[in-house]
Design a protein that fits this description.
This protein is mainly beta. The chain has 1 helix and 44 strands.
């Protein structure tokens, strides 16, 4: 008996873990959208006319006017029925009925809404947690609201108490715990409490990202930390946010790279650059692209019309309308060329030699035959692929795990834990 109970507990734990780790996708059959899980089971009924995806809005027009928003927030999907917004959960239950004229994504359990000509904040049960105010709420952090009145910005708390009156201009969303805004012609950084973290002193300033902000003195750029101290002294015509600890910088018309302390890694000798990924970056000299390492050493010669980012240690390049793959140390992956090729995702890349699509692995071997009319990248172990004008999902062996039966589909995604 004890053994049976133990087996039952293990089974329930496995089911629970699988449920938590499951992934989901939007699918359209005929004229309605719904959501399935990775087993192909319907988890949200296909009753919606429109899906707003990250890349495109699918917008057929039907009398029902039922819409669902692609990107879930706090495990809730925003829906619209007859131009009123609400939220549905992954269990196919209406969490918050459609009642708001405007609503925004949830963030840390709260969302901005607009109803009865006023703005407010609701929790995930649809309950108001702030006073309704007549001024637009731009953002919130903890129990503070960033509001706009007559093109100026101020801060209130959830109870409607004014923390700072709307006297500031050009406010950004809260980022890294502060908002960047303009006061008396200069930019500074304000806490939600209404106290300055860095008083206004910059001609132009941008939001903090991971403790670093780009600022301008006159027409030249530098970066600062949260004490207002310069990490990179203003000397560059343009600085891009750091990726993997490296900034792209421009001097005149030429681009190079510096670290977060401003030390030059690669001199600004290039007409165009992309961010470093996996220790290499695509850069352009004259008309052609090549690949360099973090020491500025050339890895792939400057003879290509296009050089992409490095994914899974592999870079795709284009020459005379043909696509090739290189490892990030500059070696050709195989002796093949393709008329269409994608970056690697989850160890596989979509390719097309003639009319149909297949997939190669990171050794350059064709591991899924070119047999699909259309296909996309792998996400969460599955990939959308089309045959006979219908979409389904394949695994990394090329076998359909969800048979082609849909008119349109989106990539699989996971929900926040």
């Amino acid at each position: 008996m004890k053994k049976l109970i133990l087996l039952l507990i293990v089974y329930l734990l496995v089911i629970s873990v699988n449920a938590q780790n499951d992934s989901y996708a939007f699918v359209r059959n005929y004229d309605r959208w719904g959501v399935i899980n990775s087993s192909g089971e319907i988890v949200i009924d296909a009753i919606y006319d429109i899906v707003y995806s990250p890349a495109v809005t699918y917008a057929p027009y039907y009398s029902d006017s039922k819409n669902i928003i692609f990107e879930p927030s706090d495990n809730l999907f925003k829906i619209s029925i007859h131009e009123k917004f609400g939220y549905v959960n992954i269990h196919n239950e209406t969490q918050i009925p459609c009642q708001f004229k405007v609503s925004y994504d949830f963030k840390n359990g709260h969302a901005i809404i607009y109803t009865k000509a006023k703005y407010g904040i609701i929790d995930i049960n649809g309950e108001l947690v702030s006073e309704l105010v007549k001024y637009p709420i731009i953002d919130f952090l903890e129990d503070k609201l960033l509001i706009r009145k007559d093109h100026k910005f101020g801060i209130m708390d959830f109870d409607g108490k004014v923390i700072t009156p709307p006297i500031y201009r050009d406010a950004d969303y809260f980022s890294d715990g502060v908002t960047c805004l303009k006061y008396k012609g200069k930019y500074g950084y304000l806490f939600p409490s209404g106290h300055w973290m860095i008083e206004p002193k910059f001609k132009q300033a941008y939001s903090f990202i991971n403790g670093i902000a780009i600022v301008k003195e006159g027409i030249i750029c530098g970066t600062i930390n949260k004490k207002g101290e310069y990490l990179i002294e203003p000397k560059w015509d343009q600085i891009e946010p750091a990726e993997n600890g490296i900034h792209r910088v421009r001097s005149g018309y030429m681009w190079g790279f510096v670290d977060i302390k401003g030390t030059i890694i690669v001199k600004p000798d290039y007409y165009e650059t992309r961010d470093f990924s996996e220790g290499v970056a695509a850069v352009r000299k004259g008309e052609f692209w090549g690949l360099i390492d973090e020491n500025g050493v050339s890895i792939i010669d400057f003879i290509y019309e296009y050089v992409g980012d490095c994914n899974d240690g592999i870079v795709r390049v284009k020459e005379k309308n043909k696509w090739y793959y290189f490892s990030k140390d500059g070696k050709r992956l195989n002796d093949k060329h393709y008329i269409n090729a994608n970056d690697f995702h989850e160890g596989l890349a979509r390719v097309k030699s003639l009319k149909l699509y297949g997939y190669i692995n990171n050794k350059g071997d064709l591991v899924i035959d070119e047999k699909f009319e259309n296909a996309y990248d792998f996400h969460n172990g599955l990939c959308r692929a089309r045959v006979d004008q219908l979409w389904g999902y394949i695994d990394n062996t090329g076998q359909y795990v969800i048979i082609p039966k849909y008119n349109n589909v989106e990539d699989f995604f996971t929900l926040d834990e």
